[in-house]
Amino acid sequence: MTHDLGNSDATLDRDSRIGLCRLCLNPSANLRQSHYLPKGLYRLLRDEKSPNPNPVLLTERLAVSTSKQLTPYLLCGLCEKRLSDNGENWVLQHCPRRGSFTLATILDAVSPSEVSSDTRVYLAGGIPKIDTAALAYFAISIFWRGSIHAWNQVGAISGKLMQSASTSGRPSIGGAATPR
Ligand SMILES: [Zn+2]
User: Fold this and answer.
1) Which of 15, 18, 98, 162 could cross-link 147 (Cys pair, CB 3.0–4.6 Å)?
2) Cα 21 to ligand 1 centre (Å)
3) Are 113 and 121 in contact, with CB atoms under 8 Å apart?
4) Ligand 1 centre from 31 Cα, in Å?
């Protein structure tokens, strides 16, 4: 797999095509196949002990276990890297994985600021091991991705929330800015 970062003078491989990058708005970007959720998360959602280890796809009409993923050409390699570097990588390293849940381990080691019978509240901004910027970036990027493509396979992007995320989310996750 090549790791060129997305411009038209790069050599296309069979997983690329030229078009408008929806994040940096380069009209002749070398687009990559994008996932709605990070590719690594799909792997974590598989249950290898099950006869059908694939995640369940829910639609308005059915629920089916499938390995099929929608991978439209939406973003250039540079913007895919931006999303990974600024949010996805941290979230994937700290989310529940087989046999570990790093974020929960971090929280277990500190005192919550509020406790009720079934809830503990933590001020994550005061816990150095928690990258709140990465968490917020990841959340905004998921809303934004949801707003720029009809991921539901029936060709519809629903709701004012998604319309709002499309216009307000792009500047929040970097647009043409340099990745950190
Ligand atoms: Zn781009």
Assistant:
1) 162
2) 5
3) yes
4) 8
CA of 73 to the centre of ligand 1 (A): 11
Cα–Cα distance, 124 to 162 (Å, whole number): 27
- Which tokens go with 111? 């005192």
Going from the Cα of 165 to the center of ligand 1, the distance in angstroms, rounded, reads 18
Q: What is the pLDDT of residues 34-43, one digit of tens each?
A: 988 887 887 7
61 Cα: distance to centroid of ligand 1 (angstroms):
34
Q: Which residue has the tokens 């570097």?
A: 85
Using the Cα atoms of residue 26, residue 32, residue 33 and residue 35 in order, give the sign of their dihedral. Answer: negative
Ligand 1 centre from 94 Cα, in Å?
26
pTM given for the model: 0.77
Contacts of 9 (CB under 8 A, 6+ apart): none
